[in-house]
Hints:
Number of strands: 15
Distance between the termini: 23 Å
Number of helices: 9
Helix content: 25-40%
Radius of gyration: 21 Å
Strand content: 25-35%
Structural class: alpha/beta
Amino acid sequence: MNFVGHAKARTMKAAVVTGAGRIKIDNFPLPIPAKNQVRIKLEGCGVCASNLGPWAGPEWMNFPTEPGGLGHEGWGVIDAIGDDVRGIEIGDRVAALSFHAYATHDIADEQAVVPLPATLAGLPFPGEPLGCAMNIFRRSNIEPGQTVAIVGIGFLGALLTQLAVSAGARVIAISRRPFALKAAQDAGASTVIAMEDHWQILDEVKSLTDGHFCDCVIEAVGKQWPLDLAAELTKERGRLIIAGYHQDGPRQVNMQLWNWRGLDVINAHERDPAIYASGIRSAIGAVLDDRLNPSPLYTHSFPLEQLGTALNMTRDRPDGFLKALVHYP
């Protein structure tokens, strides 16, 4: 990001991660949007579990981060536009795909912002994770009457539960925390199962499905055991959807099982910004027609000065936690 400043420049407040588990909040010159870019005066930003790797201070991480760095789930109001921006105006409220959103302002490409309708005024809208849920749901091809298991009920798993139920599927939610299982029930899951004993879970799901297992299983944890469990819960010719963020090392898979059952395995992550933006637009539509209700899933909110607490809570997942937001005055 280019920061252009002079004697009369206004400033923004931004978080800088200075080392493992350490944050400094400071003032910086406002970034200036270049051609085809906009600047957003952010209202807030979601806290993503993908931040936890850098937050732990691995050897590959360079400190300090850029101002606002790691934040990528921001929303707010356009307050400056660069040359050749079309269809977006100062004052528009948007969700943004930007990369320095742990700050009061950030820059985004014109194609990476999605206008928010007036009916969502005053509501937080972390577009990136909501769009991610919609894109995973789209690739899952869930149909009415199917049985869907969701392994891991965090923010993403709870959103996918809502979407699958709205699509007419029977949802079996599997998670380790009682609070998360209650959230899945509230989202419409027909059955919830504590993720404690591998064989007990298999037996229960086998009984619920007359021995066939599930048409579609979404793994939303990002660890080895939940991935193994999800594969075993998927029926012959079923769909195994990898939604978990597997970034802590290689994985082993039971290829004998995958081959024997003829599983369709879909890694449902996206990297194309245009597809992310499309997912955000789909999320807006899903919220407006009541297929998606993220509001009760935002369980904790912090000012920017307490971003470190929000990251620690995202890591530790205490009882009652699903999703943290940071908000800016």
